[in-house]
Structures are given as structure tokens and as C-alpha cells.
From TrEMBL:
Record protein name field: Diaminopimelate epimerase
Family: Belongs to the diaminopimelate epimerase family.
Domain of life (superkingdom): Bacteria
Pathway where this protein functions: Amino-acid biosynthesis; L-lysine biosynthesis via DAP pathway; DL-2,6-diaminopimelate from LL-2,6-diaminopimelate: step 1/1
Entry's Gene Ontology molecular function annotations: diaminopimelate epimerase activity
Annotated organism of origin: Planktothricoides raciborskii GIHE-MW2
Length: 281
């Protein structure tokens, strides 16, 4: 049996996209996803994304994703922009704006392809209580805002945001100085995060411009993280360090994130790029 795939990236956060519309379960296992994501022995990617048929009458499709370590996250911001482009590329030549209602394990997410090719995603409402993150750092109904956390022999002041998936954000003076490779996994696997966590270090350049580096749960250092950029803006706004709308600069490029005052929803805008197609046998 051969399976076609297409490789996409969103700011260098790269994914193998599989047309899984004929079956309600992913046609590859988590173990196969790990093999395909391997950058030496496989295709190389931060994750594998499946376009599945919708189960809800309100949705067009369903997204499932495996991280490069085989774990299954609830949501992926850069991934859902890539999925929107993939679906548009599978269908008749584009009419824009094209909007998709996508079921995810974090609920309904709505990407819209703009006339200029950028994709704007309604990422939903951020969740902030300790129970929702989830973390045991505070009482269940408390928000985790600038709380001390011991990691790698240092006390960090962390703020936690759930954007469908968990994020732990620390504001620092200079993101370039953070030893992400050694510190990242210690945050990710800290016992206060029962479902592990994504880890973001953020530098405020201006109230409408943040710089961020990320250690992703299940994938390690990546060039960008869409949900992480949204979480960084939410954390920055809550602690009074940024505006409701800002550009987030990541190693792979920039995203524009806005936290709407009228409906409390987060809107993320950024690119999604097809790289190549191939066949798995
Ligand atoms: N890169 C993604 C997030 C992917 C999932 C993450 N690794 C997790 O386990 O939560 C993004 O762009 O949001």
C-alpha cells in the first residue's frame, strides 16, 4: 500500500500532512509517526497531521496530530494553518477568503485563508485557571500569574495559559541567553504539570513587539509555535507588559496575534507553505 503525503511548514515548524478523509481513525500509528518525523532516518518533521472527516455536523473536517515523540496534543496553531492550506490545495483552485471549521481535541478552530495567502485562525478563548492548564502549582480555580517555580537550580516567575494545550511562559530580559536545550525538558517534565507542558521564554521589545523562543512538549526546540505565541501574548497582556495586539518574533519568522476585547477570542495570522509531496510505501 502506498500513502501520499505533503510536507508543509509554518515559520519552519514543519509537518507531514496526510489526506485521511476516507477513514475516521489516523491511517498511521504513533510509532510510525515517530519514524517519519526522524530527521535522519525519516522525512523529518515536528509532527504528523491527519485531515479526517468531521464527526460534528458544524465542522468541515477533523484534525488529529502526533508530535515527533508520538504523543498526541490537543491543538497546534502552525499546524492548523498548514492544514487549511493542505485542504485548499486538495480542493478546486482557491477562492478566497476560504474558511474551514475544524474539529480538534481542543474544540472547534476556524482558519481562514486570506487573499494574500496568509492564514488567520480564530483560536478560541484562552483558559487560565490551574485546573484548566493543568498544573498543581496553585489551587484549582486560581490563575497562575508570575508565580515562582524552581527549575534547574533557579527560581523563575512563570505564567500559565491553556490555548487548547498547556503553556508555561517566563518573561526574560534576553531570550538569546536562555539555555533552552537543557532547561526546556526540565520545565516540560516538571511534576507540577501532569500532562507535561510547552515552555516559552519571551522578551518584550516594545508593547506591540515580543521575541519568543520555545521548547515544545513532545517535539523539543522548534522554530515557531502558534499556540505558544498566542499564550505569550495573553500572558504579556495580563501582566501589563504588552498590548492586546502584537507581533511575536520567533526564530522561524513572525506571527501577528490579537486578543479581541469584544469576544475574548484570540486571532493568529501567519503563513503556511507547501514544501514537497511524496509517497510512503
Ligand atoms: N507547534 C504547535 C504546537 C504543537 C503541539 C505541542 N507540541 C503540544 O504538545 O502541545 C503550534 O504551532 O501550536
Amino acid at each position: 500500500m502506498t500513502i501520499e503525503f505533503t510536507k508543509y511548514h509554518g515559520l519552519g515548524n514543519d509537518f507531514i500532512l496526510i489526506d485521511n478523509r476516507q477513514s475516521s481513525e489516523p491511517i498511521l500509528t504513533d510509532v510510525q509517526a515517530v519514524q517519519l518525523c526522524d530527521r535522519h532516518f525519516g522525512i523529518g518533521a515536528d509532527g504528523v497531521i491527519f485531515a479526517l472527516p468531521a464527526t460534528s455536523p458544524d465542522a468541515d473536517y477533523k484534525m488529529r496530530i502526533f508530535n515527533s515523540d508520538g504523543s498526541e496534543p490537543e491543538m497546534c496553531g502552525n499546524g492548523i494553518r498548514c492544514l487549511a492550506r493542505f485542504l485548499a490545495d486538495l480542493q478546486a483552485p482557491s477562492r478566497t477568503p476560504q474558511t474551514y471549521h475544524i474539529e480538534t481535541l481542543a474544540g472547534m478552530i476556524t482558519p481562514q485563508i486570506q487573499a494574500d495567502g496568509q492564514v488567520t485562525v480564530d483560536m478560541g478563548v484562552p483558559r487560565l485557571t490551574a485546573a484548566e492548564i493543568p498544573t498543581t502549582l496553585m489551587e484549582e480555580d486560581c490563575r497562575v500569574i508570575i508565580q515562582p517555580l524552581e527549575v534547574a537550580g533557579q527560581t523563575w516567575k512563570v505564567t500559565c495559559v491553556n490555548m487548547g494545550n498547556p503553556h508555561c511562559i517566563t518573561f526574560v530580559n534576553n531570550v538569546a541567553e536562555i539555555a533552552l536545550e537543557s532547561i526546556g525538558p526540565q520545565f516540560e517534565h516538571h511534576p507540577i504539570f501532569p500532562q507535561r507542558t510547552n515552555v516559552e521564554f519571551v522578551q518584550v521589545v516594545a508593547p506591540d513587539y515580543l521575541k519568543m523562543r520555545v521548547w515544545e512538549r513532545g517535539a523539543g526546540i522548534t522554530l515557531a509555535c502558534g499556540t505558544g505565541a498566542c499564550a505569550a501574548l495573553v500572558a504579556g497582556f495580563i501582566i501589563g507588559r504588552c498590548e492586546r495586539k502584537a507581533t511575536i518574533e520567533l526564530p522561524g519568522g513572525s506571527l501577528v496575534i490579537e486578543w479581541s476585547e469584544s469576544n475574548e477570542r484570540i486571532y493568529m495570522t501567519g503563513p503556511a507553505q507547501r514544501v514537497f509531496t511524496g509517497k510512503l510505501s
